[in-house]
Amino acid sequence: MLQNNYDVVVIGGGAGGVAAAIGATQAREKALLVERSSYLGGQDTNCSIPTYDGFFYTS
What we know:
This protein is of the alpha+beta class. The chain has one domain (8-56). The chain is 27% helix and 20% strand. The protein has two helices and four strands, in the order E-H-E-H-E-E. The protein has helices spanning 15-26, 43-46, and strands at residues 8-11, 31-34, 51-52, 55-56. The longest helix is centred in the middle third of the chain and has 12 residues, at 15-26. The protein is flat and about 35 Å long. It starts with 7 loop residues before the first strand and ends with a strand.
């Protein structure tokens, strides 16, 4: 069985989860980000909220 060791495990690939994983790697920690969907962004991208230049908005 393959075994991996991580210093930080982040559950959820939303904005906060991605930021946490990036922060952990910048602190030289080995991080694992777990997301159930096939793309990152959380509810902002999963719910078809329109974006403009990277900013999320709702009408």
